[in-house]
């Protein structure tokens, strides 16, 4: 699909490709399709001029947008492997990840260098000097330089000898490294091949078949690539929630992709939606999807995806709301995706879009998700919670994911079940519920009494109405922080 995108950009170079929003929400063209293609050509030429060739690794710390997409196209064209770096991960984690990936070059924009604290060292040597490790290679700035940034990637490098777009490269070759977790002593990194990356993008393209000139709103590669390939411009979501609401009103996008926290914030700001709305990267209950549809969306979809396999399943709000069994329905496996629980109930996934391996480890056809799940009679995936989130109370294993969906009654924004120490090696089970803005707390507690009463032996010991801490780039509920919050509020067990 990246080869098709390159061709599509050049076929209509004058058309808008990437849009941003003014403070009034009005669209502003950030880059045309021709400018994106030209930028990708320039990056490919500069990387080729530095001697980088197919199979080499390039670290990438560039904010989502036209430059990041052009870097991806350049890496794809040359057969380079991109290691996605999060500059906000902290110096110890960042160094450990760089030591594992060992990139020949790191590409970073000025903002990433400032966040990572790279600026001053790079001003001296433009290299990452790591303790007890060989130098990992030079760093180059992508986009405007600020004082103290590394030297710029040469925008005027000769174009001769650069492989043409669509050059025949091995589909089994590595395409991208994405770090997911792991300690500084042993980072964890997902490796996708060119074939698995292409398969994932093709699956996304089949999910939302954006067409024509109506814009799509979203900032991830898995939104940008399929939409631009089909000819639709992509609007990057405004960072300010009120501006985002105005942006949605003015654009009326045919498809919108926002994470659940951003959807909740947009709804709180009175946003109206249009066309189809997609959300993922964090839990999205039926209540949230129904609120999105009530706010104007024709369809509201939850996407179940992992870094190791994107996407795996999807479910529309009406199907999710009609599901009355225990657990969280995330939909039928998408075409090509194989799903099964192992002997412990953990969900295993496989298929063309599955990662090839973890960096430094042997290939494995099955992705171990860490989610407990079952397949219902229709073959749909029903999540029962994270294996590691299990709460042990009175010698009984309680999996929060089985019961949390029932807590999302009207007026609830977010709800999680966490365990906190009971002082005797046991745990207390606490339901922490985040009310929607303006919800009446007394009425909310009354509404929660019915689903809480149906939990049987998993009935929580306490119910707290609190704002739930979020963490990570996808802003998922931070269960450890929520448990700590519950422990502070409730005090020692008696």
UniProtKB/TrEMBL annotation:
GO molecular function, one term: ligase activity
Family matches, as InterPro entries: AMP-bd_C_sf, AMP-binding_CS, AMP-dep_synth/lig_dom, ANL_N_sf, ATP-dep_AMP-bd_enzyme
Region named Disordered: 473-494
Record domain AMP-dependent synthetase/ligase: where: 6-340
Low complexity composition bias: residue spans: 480-494
SUPFAM superfamilies per UniProt: Acetyl-CoA synthetase-like
Domain of life of the native organism: Bacteria
Keyword tags: Ligase
Full protein name: Acyl-CoA synthetase (AMP-forming)/AMP-acid ligase II
Phylogenetic placement of the source organism: Bacteria, Bacillati, Actinomycetota, Actinomycetes, Kitasatosporales
